[in-house]
């Protein structure tokens, strides 16, 4: 209280001091906030019990927060623009049993209305149904973007919930490509119901890509019903991709008749891609029976260049001399059937002479001499070709001069070219 001098002699009136209460309240609030912050920092320094969540983190910050048990800070990593940080933070949260980890991953499983590939990549190999399940649930959305890629992402996890959801995708009507992806995730299944699903899809899938995927997924299934379904598909399916998928699976299962079916496919299948794949399956073979199949194939005319090229490469790949001998013995046949209109070096998949020299050059002189001796049945181009190569390995030969391909006189007979001595 303040006393004021009064010149009239009256008793002074007490005056109350004026206090700015708004200023006082503001200072009180600030003091309280600062005190709380200092107290929190004090506790943080002592025991890490108080977590101040930052707005930005990097991988090193994620590691530091994980070590301290500050899982809310780890969770911040899932909201970063950097995909590597989001992926890494996800992998860290996989090791956390606290419910906050599951909540964080499920909250950030989508980003900007689309499932986040970085978080999905972070879940790779995880068997946690509680987290992977949130990703699997997105398959229930009919308009989910990149559905096929989502199936792939789920297939890379080890969570049971993902396997069950993918089996559902495989069985339900939908995009064949996406379903085929889901079917392939069932490879090696030990579940009888899923095995039955694969067999049913192989027998009656409405698209070849589904039947082929089912055939490939039966690898490892040695039950008689699986083998029977594969053999039926090899013999009866109208699509070549399904037939070859069934054959390759039978080979991987070491089916008793797999070699016989392979020979049949390379010789008789109407689809050149099936013939090529069947030949390719024998790459590097040491089996006498398989080499005998390759000999039959080499001495049977083939119209497709890609099949002939694969045949030459596969024969060359075998370490057995019996395989190398095929290249030698088949030269006359190839020159008669394939070198009719041009030189073999200009015709894809016909240059068996070079293939023999690459594979077994030590015997090339003898091989080329025998082929040259049988030249009477060759076209001018065949004669020219073998004569040139016989001379290259030290032989003596007449090399005919042939017209350009397509010109008159390129074949045999009176109008053909004359031979000249080099």
Core attributes:
two-stranded antiparallel sheet, Leucine-rich Repeat Variant, 4 strands, elongated, two-stranded antiparallel ribbon, disordered C terminus, 422 residues
How large is the share of residues in beta strands? under 5%
Q: Assembly state here?
A: single chain
- Terminal-residue CA separation: 136 Å
Radius of gyration: 39 Å
SSE sequence, one letter per element: HHHHHEEHHHHHHHHHHHHHHHHHHEE
Largest sheet: 2 strands, antiparallel
Taken from the alpha-carbon principal axes, the silhouette is: elongated
Overall mean pLDDT stands at 88
Count every helix, treating DSSP H or I runs of 4 or more residues as helices. Answer: 23
**CATH architecture name of the domain at 186-255:** Alpha Horseshoe
Q: Find the count of extended strands (DSSP E, 2+ residues).
A: 4
Low-confidence stretches: 1-9, 23-34, 36-49, 409-422
**Structural classification:** mainly alpha
Helix coverage percent: 55-70%
**What is the CATH topology descriptor of the domain at 186-255?**
Leucine-rich Repeat Variant
Q: Order of strands across the widest beta sheet? A: 1-2
By CATH reckoning, the class of the domain at 186-255 would read Mainly Alpha
């Amino acid at each position: 209280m303040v006393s004021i001098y009064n010149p009239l002699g009256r008793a002074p009136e007490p005056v109350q001091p004026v206090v700015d209460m708004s200023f006082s309240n503001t200072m009180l609030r600030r003091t309280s906030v600062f005190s709380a912050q200092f107290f929190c920092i004090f506790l943080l320094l002592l025991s890490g019990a108080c977590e101040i969540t930052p707005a930005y983190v990097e991988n090193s910050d994620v590691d530091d927060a994980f070590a301290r048990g500050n899982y809310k800070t780890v969770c911040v990593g899932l909201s970063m623009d950097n995909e590597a940080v989001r992926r890494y933070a996800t992998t860290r949260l996989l090791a956390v049993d606290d419910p906050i980890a599951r909540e964080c991953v499920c909250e950030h499983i989508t980003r900007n209305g689309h499932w986040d590939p970085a978080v999905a990549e972070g879940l790779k190999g995880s068997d946690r149904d509680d987290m992977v399940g949130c990703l699997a649930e997105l398959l229930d959305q009919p308009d989910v973007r990149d559905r096929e890629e989502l199936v792939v992402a789920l297939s890379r996890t080890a969570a049971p919930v993902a396997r069950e959801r993918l089996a559902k995708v495989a069985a339900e009507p939908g995009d064949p490509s996406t379903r085929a992806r889901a079917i392939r995730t069932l490879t090696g299944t030990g579940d009888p119901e899923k095995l039955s699903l694969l067999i049913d899809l192989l027998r009656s899938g409405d698209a070849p890509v589904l039947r082929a995927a089912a055939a490939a997924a039966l690898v490892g299934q040695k039950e008689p019903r699986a083998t029977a379904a594969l053999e039926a598909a090899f013999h009866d399916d109208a699509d070549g991709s399904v037939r070859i998928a069934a054959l390759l699976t039978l080979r991987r299962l070491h089916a008793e008749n797999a070699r016989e079916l392979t020979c049949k496919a390379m010789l008789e299948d109407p689809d050149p891609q099936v013939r090529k794949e069947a030949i390719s399956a024998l790459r590097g073979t040491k089996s006498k029976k398989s080499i005998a199949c390759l000999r039959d194939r080499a001495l049977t005319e083939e119209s497709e260049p890609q099949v002939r090229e694969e045949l030459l490469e596969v024969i060359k790949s075998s370490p057995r001399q019996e395989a190398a001998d095929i290249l030698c013995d088949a030269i006359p046949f190839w020159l008669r059937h394939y070198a009719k209109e041009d030189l073999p070096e200009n015709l894809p998949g016909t240059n068996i002479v070079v293939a023999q020299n690459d594979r077994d050059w030590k015997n090339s002189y003898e091989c080329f001499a025998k082929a040259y001796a049988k030249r009477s049945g060759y076209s001018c181009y065949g004669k020219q070709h073998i004569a040139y190569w016989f001379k290259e390995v030290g032989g003596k030969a007449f090399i005919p001069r042939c017209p350009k391909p397509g010109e008159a006189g390129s074949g045999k007979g009176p109008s053909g070219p004359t031979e000249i001595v080099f």
